[in-house]
Amino acid sequence: MTPQTVISLAEQSIGVMLMVAGPLLLVALLVGLLVSVIQAATQINESTLSFIPKLISILAVLVVAGPWMIQMLVDYIHRLFESIPALIG
User: Which of 16, 35, 51, 65 is the most exposed place for a label (fewest CB within 10 A)?
Assistant: First the structure.
């Protein structure tokens, strides 16, 4: 197993992780920011108020982008399994 192969697999895994988790985290960040601005404007300081909009928005993103995310993970795992002989020998 060459160090270049290990680095390539690590780069691919980080890239796939960012591609799959990125949309979910970005939506949660934007919805949390929007709810925080609304809470600051209305002076409602309820910590559970931001939980439900985040949950609903993340579920919506999963419904819309879920098949794409699964396909990204399946493609990565397929490439990973195909590279096993190169890693061993």
Answer: 51
Residues 6+ apart with CB under 8 A from 50: 31, 32, 35, 36, 39
pTM higher than 0.85: no
| DSSP-assigned states of every residue in 77-89 | HHHHHHTHHHHH-
Within 10 angstroms of residue 72's Cβ, the number of other Cβ atoms is 16
> Which residue is listed with tokens 């060459």?
2
C-alpha–C-alpha distance, residues 68 and 62, integer Å: 9
Q: How confident is the model at residue 2 (pLDDT cuts 50, 70, 90)?
A: low
